[in-house]
Specification:
This protein is mainly α. The chain is built from three helices and two strands. The protein has helices at 2-12, 26-32, 36-48, and strands at residues 56-58, 81-83. A two-stranded antiparallel ribbon has the order 1-2. Helix 1 crosses helix 3.
């Protein structure tokens, strides 16, 4: 994941206000033991000397994208997410 994070950091460095990720569902997190999107966001942020901000919360378990047929990759990623309120 370090290579992918480094490529993202080189390509997008300085071109963002906030880094976030689309979380996996609690069910998938328990089965996997990690959230791949969060790890990638954290790895990229290490190159930018910043931290990712959790803005989305998964509220529903969706089928794995690898099992979807006829949908473009990435389209259903945010289904079942809601915006997390941040404190001002």
């Amino acid at each position: 994941m370090s290579f992918l994070a480094r490529c993202a950091a080189e390509r997008f460095g300085g071109e963002f206000d906030t880094v976030t990720w689309v979380p996996v569902s609690q069910k998938r997190l328990e089965a996997r033991g990690y959230d791949q999107s969060r790890l990638l966001a954290e790895a990229a942020c290490r190159h930018w000397d910043t931290k990712p901000v959790q803005l989305l919360v998964k509220v529903q378990d969706n089928p794995a994208q690898s099992g979807l047929q006829g949908e473009p990759p990435g389209v259903p990623t945010c289904w079942g997410c809601t915006i997390q309120r941040t404190r001002s």
